[in-house]
Amino acid sequence: RTSLASPKKLIRSANMTQRWQRREISNFEYLMYLNTISEPFTTFYFNLQEGKFDHASRTFHSIPISWQNCQWDSFDVKELIPESFSLPEMFTNCNHYKLGRVEDGIKIDDVV
């Protein structure tokens, strides 16, 4: 079912916060982190971050770097979500959002 409601109304009507608190779904912010460049998550993310993307270095942009961080930092815990296997668009910035640059000047775009 497709909804034309605003993201806030959609979240409220789906009781997502309550489902997250009951641990029925994974951390919603984490899902948005992984799906930053895939709609409708982009809209949710924009609303959460007050109309802008988060700092470029915190944007999910590299599978090898995320994997490496999980291996070395016990506080950096991630999970593979079904979208990782069934939604290849989540790795492509097909809408050409300006996601910024990391400290070494590399432009954030598609997930590599």
Automatic annotation (TrEMBL):
GO terms for molecular function: protein kinase binding. InterPro entries: BEACH_dom (IPR000409), BEACH_dom_sf (IPR036372), BEACH_Domain (IPR050865). Residues 1-112 form the BEACH domain. GO terms for cellular component: cytosol; membrane. One of its GO terms (biological process) is intracellular protein localization. Pfam families: Beach (PF02138). This is BEACH domain-containing protein.
